[in-house]
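Holo model, geranylgeranyl diphosphate. Inputs:
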Amino acid sequence: MGELNIENHARYILSVEKKKDSFESVVMEHLRLNGAYWGLAALDIMGKLDAVDQDEVVSWIRQCQDESGGFGGNIGHDPHILYTLSAIQVLALFDKIDVLDTEKVSKYIAGLQNGDGSFSGDMWGEVDTRFSYIALCSLALLHRLDKINVEAAVKYIVSCKNLDGGFGCTPGAESHAGQIFCCVGALAITGALHHIDKDLLGWWLCERQVISGGLNGRPEKLPDVCYSWWVLSSLIMIDRVHWIDKKKLVQFILDCQDKENGGISDRPDDAVDIFHTYFGVAGLSLLEYPGLKPIDPAYALPVDVVNRIFLHR
Ligand code: GRG
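Output:
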């Protein structure tokens, strides 16, 4: 079995940031804060966060904040709940959440809750269980869950549960592993996992493993490294991770590495990118791959960071 090439992956992540004119940097311009979370969280899990200029990142993040309290994907961009979570997560990695005006940020997030308990992503109103997870995760990290109606938020998520045990983006929408992570994560954060039929959902999730060892996001689809996060974290939260072949999944992720130049791709021999590099490394961390920091399956942050926020207040 090949090994995880930590040195090359760290070099690749740092290089994406430096090559501002590269294809990857240009297409990520509008979601740079999200990309910062993927890259920096991957570096932290690999024990390489020291290679980054913390002050420079924190100062840039502060400039991404809009008057409303929410954050945009880059300086001067419109705020969205997704980038607001990324900002909180990156600051958490650096132990810098205290630079935030917590009241203002939580007010922005709470303002996106709708009457039925769901959340919109921004002022334009799109509703999705991704935004429910993001709101609950963000407010929990800020110790401000009291700002919203948690009971209604949970009720809305439960209304998105399907007969196959999975969850979709809105009531009646098809089960998808990404949305399942969001709903299971949100229910874990709010202590409401009892709403899940763990055997039924566990069965659907473990069926996502295909012959190559990789996981797909729904039936009949191709495997993709990112589902090593969405599926695996969900299986761990419902105590059913032993239902998949972990060794084969480790091998699939390692096979997706660019061994020479660093980075991880969606499938073997495809082009690498920062998103799949993060979810590959995070998946290996969930699989207890040696040399990696453990990651929390609900908060998607290293366990030591989560403990710092909740245990050492
Ligand atoms: C903090 C980890 C973290 C997440 C924040 C944004 C978010 C919350 C969650 C996104 C969950 C999600 C919907 C993930 C799926 C992403 C993905 C690869 C979608 C591709 O969908 P299709 O239909 O692909 O193009 P398939 O694999 O079904 O063919």
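The longest helix spans residues 32-45. The mean pLDDT is 96.
Archived with the compound record.
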